[in-house]
Amino acid sequence: MAIKAPRRKFRAHERLDSASGLGERQEWFRVSGRIFGVLGRIRYDPVLLFFLMLIATIGLVAGYSASEQSVIWVEKSAFRFVLAFLLMLLIAQIPQRFFFAVAPWLFVSVVLMLVAVWLVGDVGKGARRWLDLGFIRFQPAEILKIGMPMMLAWFLSKRPLPPRFLDVVLALTLLAVPTVLIVMQPDLGTAILVMMAGLFVLFFAGLSWYYVLGFMAIISAAAPLMWFYVMHDYQKERVLTLFNPMADPLGAGYHTIQSMIAIGSGGIWGKGWLQGTQSHLNFLPEGTTDFILAVYAEEFGLMGLIILFSLYLAVIWRGLYIAAYAESVAGRLLAAAISMTFLVYVFVNAGMVIGILPVVGVPLPLMSYGGTALVTIMIALGMLMSIRTQRSFLGHER
Fold it and tell me: Cis bond leading into 149, ω under 30°?
């Protein structure tokens, strides 16, 4: 006798559940499609982003060793990097015309803030650099690392190029006023970066070599006056230490001497990650900030430095490529100035670490631990990406 299989019940419910599951999957696909569609509209330069992420990764690796293998330090640094990269991508979505629309207002506002710093600014470590608004305390001079090239790019783009003599004088005046206010704080490192950012805009605007040579002659002639009447004693000490760091090996020359020992002991291939003695035995000061390059060189050697500087040169090359193909004159000048200012950051930091430049406290981009400098650099790179992209977040032409 054949045994009949029991009939299945609730088939209607099964069909309903199946339809419900299919509907949920379709809804999920629709939401996912919208998310990826939005992400696809985000404009950025993948080549530049790739090189920057590699440098940031190297910075975390070197910083982990320099911070005595502190996981907390790595977590804080990684969090700052993530926020900085998100800020860069956000800036990259803004049409470049917006930057030049606000440039004169931003410039005037920062100059007034610098005057306020000179009059009522907060004093810290012997310098009057900070402005306290009650809810925030910041350095207005940092804004000019971006605001100065924006202002001069806007100013020169509205005039015939190459710039005429009167336009050069006006541009140098715009450059000199805030630079002098920053020097008076005193903050020589920031003053150098602001001045160079402005001069790069002038140079890429087609400035005649006669003007360049004349400017260099004026600087040379003014150097003695700067030495006797402008520079502070500690700044003079830094310059003298540059030529003879052994004159004060336990004082002014200590940073430079220990840094050169660390770099030299690294040799060709380095001592190996986490094996550096200068940093781990606390001979090298400021290992996670200004002198992180010395920590990296000791552990990864000459070959590691070649890789790192190749990445920096790739970022600069990409920036100049973006400048060469920018659609507007102002965008071209700003992109070129940002790229070369990035080079100045790297050159000045490397120069003071190896002892060919005075110690002026300029960080190494995406390597040195710090918030303000990182934000400034990433905003500038976001502008560079904005100039590179042709459409905004909503898909409208720039």
Answer: no
Give the length of the chain. 398
- CA–CA gap between residue 120 and residue 116 (Å, rounded): 6
φ/ψ (deg, to 5) at 138: -145, 170
Best CA proximity match to 139, nearest among 115, 120, 114, 119: 114
Contacts of 182 (CB under 8 A, 6+ apart): 114, 141, 144, 190, 191, 194
Lookup: tokens for 240: 């003298």
Cα angle value 291/130/371 (rounded, 5°) = 40
Query: Which of the pair, 303 or 11, is modelled with greater confidence?
Result: 303
**C-alpha neighbours within 13 Å on the C-beta side of residue 165:** 2
Cα distances (Å, whole numbers) of residue 148 to 103, 162, 372 = 8, 19, 17
Secondary structure of 306-355 in the HEC alphabet?
HHHHHHHHHHHHHHHHHHHCCCCHHHHHHHHHHHHHHHHHHHHHHHHHHC
Pairwise CA distance, residues 383 & 93, whole Å: 9
- Three-class SS state of 165: helix
Backbone phi and psi for residue 9, each to the nearest 5 degrees, phi listed first: -110, 170
Fill in the amino acid letter for 384: L
Backbone dihedral angles phi then psi of residue 54, each to the nearest 5 degrees: -65, -45
Structure-block tokens of residue 114: 């610098």
Tokens 């660390």 locate to 262
Specify the higher pLDDT residue, 99 or 230.
99
pTM of the model: 0.84
pLDDT tens-place string over residues 200-239 = 999 999 888 888 888 888 888 888 888 877 777 777 877 7
Sign of CA dihedral 190, 191, 196, 197: positive
168, 137 contact by CB (below 8 A): no
